[in-house]
Design a protein that fits this description.
seven-stranded antiparallel sheet; 3 helices; 7 strands; about 25% helix
Length: about 180
């Protein structure tokens, strides 16, 4: 029924930018508070850059151009109910700024559906589901690559409604709880 759809799903426009200016539609907020993990990440990055430089040098000596090919991401799969799984990420709050709400990043496995979910603005009583989604992730979600210091994430079932004009709409199922963890 229409009431079930209203209560069980949060409806969000796709392709909403993080900065809302429209110039950077997929810019993300990332917090690297944990200095130990940040140092490890920067060391790993330096090693990877050195390996790429070495590969390019050896390719130049042989007269061949260095190429790397990555396997394309798997296409987004749907279940027997026509739902696909999306990941929603919540950035870690900066110390002393835990009360500030920041946009959450939503995307599917092949990133063909992506958007930012913004917190309510001003005196807006109807938050569009931001708080419902964030509470589910905080209570049942898991830490990212940097653990909880880098933010949290949760996987949700969703459906996309294609529109003739304007942005498509993704409906995130908040009644079924979180979907199983994914490897992408």
């Amino acid at each position: 029924t229409a009431e079930d759809i209203k209560n069980n799903y949060v409806h969000i426009f796709l392709d909403v930018p993080a900065d809302r200016s429209g110039s950077k539609p997929h810019q993300a907020l990332i917090n690297f508070n944990d200095q130990k993990n940040a140092t490890t990440a920067s060391t790993t990055g330096a090693i990877n850059r050195a390996a790429r430089r070495s590969q390019k040098r050896s390719a130049k000596k042989g007269g061949k151009k260095a190429t790397t090919t990555a396997a394309p991401p798997p296409p987004a799969q749907t279940d027997e109910l026509g739902r696909m799984v999306v990941k929603i990420q919540v950035a870690a709050a900066l110390e002393g700024m835990e009360h500030i709400k920041t946009p959450m990043l939503l995307y599917n496995s092949d990133k063909s559906a992506r958007t930012f979910i913004h917190p309510p603005s001003g005196d807006d009583d109807d938050d569009g589901g931001y708080d419902r989604i964030k509470t589910l992730i905080q209570n049942q979600g898991s830490g990212g690559a940097l653990g909880k210091t880098g933010g949290t994430k949760g996987y949700f079932y969703s459906k996309i409604t294609k529109r003739v004009e304007g942005n498509d709409i993704i409906s995130v199922d908040v009644a079924s709880g979180l979907a199983p963890m994914q490897v992408w």
